[in-house]
Amino acid sequence: MTERSDAAVASSVVSTSAVASNVVSSEGVAGSAARPLGLRWPDALGLPLAAAAAALLAAAGADAVAVVPLAAAVAAAPALARIDTAQRRLPNPLTVPLLVVGAAACAVRLAQGDLAPLAAVGSALVLLVMAVAGGMGMGDVKLGAALALVTATVGWAVPLAGLAASIVVGGVAGGAALSLGRRSVAFGPALLVGHAVAVVVAMQPP
Q: Which residues contact 140 (CB under 8 A, 6 or more apart)?
């Protein structure tokens, strides 16, 4: 890896840490101020996980446009999964920053002539249709759209594969919940797992 690449990766990690810190410290945006974010100490595990993810992605050949948003998603993942599982909500102070970071990264990709972000838009539209049909909440749509944008920086197939994997994981989790007598299951963790699996598969060497 060249010195220029090393500098870009280092800048990515620093930028990701700043984004993660802003996400963790946010206490409210419109629509979420009435309910405290309620972060717990396990949520801080997202920070070392994000640093590790950034290092692994860089080692696998990902550029800064992919490393920064993906590491930011990893940083927020523990809090998102915990809150959605416990409270059935995905707070705006966590999902909106990911949307912004993902949109910015996709704007760079489009400027580079990469049309992969269009696949992310398609994935987000599918989630919106599912929400209108009553299959999920708008928090799931925002998180799913953010993850689609973030993972589109790796390739056009990744957000689509991530959505498909999320539906499978959610279906399995829902079936298990019903067998245990539970009436519902949080879909946020399934979105996180599904898109993570898609990225891991996509980053494997040919």
A: 90, 127, 131, 187, 188, 191
Closest CA to 52 of 67, 36, 37, 31: 67
Let me know: does 157 contact 186? Beta carbons within 8 Å: no
Spell out the residues 6+ positions from residue 90 whose beta carbon is closer than 8 angstroms to its own: 80, 83, 84, 137, 139, 140, 142, 143, 188
Per-residue pLDDT tens over the stretch 76-89: 999 999 999 999 99
CA dist., res. 129 & res. 152, Å (int): 20
Say what the pTM is: 0.82
Structural tokens at position 93: 């102070």
Query: pLDDT tens for residues 43-70?
Result: 999 999 999 999 999 999 999 999 999 9
Burial class (CB in 10 A: 0-12, 13-18, 19+), 3: exposed
